[in-house]
Amino acid sequence: MSFDPATLVYDDAGLIPCIAQDADSSEVLMMAWMNAESVTRTLETGRVTYWSRSRKSFWIKGESSGHVQKLVELRLDCDRDCLLALVEQAGPACHTNRRSCFYTALRNGEEVEIMTPMA
Amino acid sequence: MSFDPATLVYDDAGLIPCIAQDADSSEVLMMAWMNAESVTRTLETGRVTYWSRSRKSFWIKGESSGHVQKLVELRLDCDRDCLLALVEQAGPACHTNRRSCFYTALRNGEEVEIMTPMA
């Protein structure tokens, strides 16, 4: 079936969450938001393009930092209200310079940092 | 630092997205929502407990289907507005009986089913 971004289920703000996962290591790198046009641009350019809710603008991941996400494959879930982007991530995905944004684990009721910033 | 679920960043509905990832295979299984009490219950019981937006009630994953998610580790992201649950998933995570909800890939502009329901 031919894919139309308009058939995805967006929230009241017209956004859909997108999980970025390292296509090689399967590490979950981050989660950010897309609107329909972000989805279209991501598929057309092969560069993962989110919608920045704070800046209210398109956010071509890595455009300023160089830490680009090259799309390997975009997948959607059963409810069509969440996306999974398999990516090749250049350097850190997180703005803190860590490979993944999920660097804090909860262990025995404590927050534990399990990842250090990349050199 | 001791963890307090109230320090997470929830949306206007008091919810935070939680990505469930298979702790062994690293496969991303699903994404659903939690409120602060879901987070507390998940940590206390070791059974991943979402908040069902449609039913407006707690949703102990697998309570009716038997396809439970045993929590291995809960992680939070840099913005504290997204969770990653590493889980042991019994059987399929998806209500369609597929292992993962992300069984549809976009390939050459087409929707392609890449996973069949489990036996």
TrEMBL record, chains A, B:
Q: Which Gene3D superfamilies match?
A: Phosphoribosyl-AMP cyclohydrolase
Amino-acid positions noted as binding Zn(2+) in the UniProt annotation, renumbered to this chain:
C78, C94, C101
Query: Subunit notes for this chain?
Result: Homodimer.
Enumerate the UniProt keywords alphabetically: Amino-acid biosynthesis, Cytoplasm, Histidine biosynthesis, Hydrolase, Magnesium, Metal-binding, Zinc
Q: InterPro entries per the record?
A: PRA-CH, PRib_AMP_CycHydrolase_dom, PRib_AMP_CycHydrolase_sf
Q: Where in the cell is it found?
A: Cytoplasm
Q: Which gene encodes it?
A: hisI
Q: Which SUPFAM superfamilies does UniProt cross-reference here?
A: HisI-like (SSF141734)
Query: What the protein does?
Result: Catalyzes the hydrolysis of the adenine ring of phosphoribosyl-AMP.
Please report the name of this protein according to its UniProt entry. Answer: Phosphoribosyl-AMP cyclohydrolase
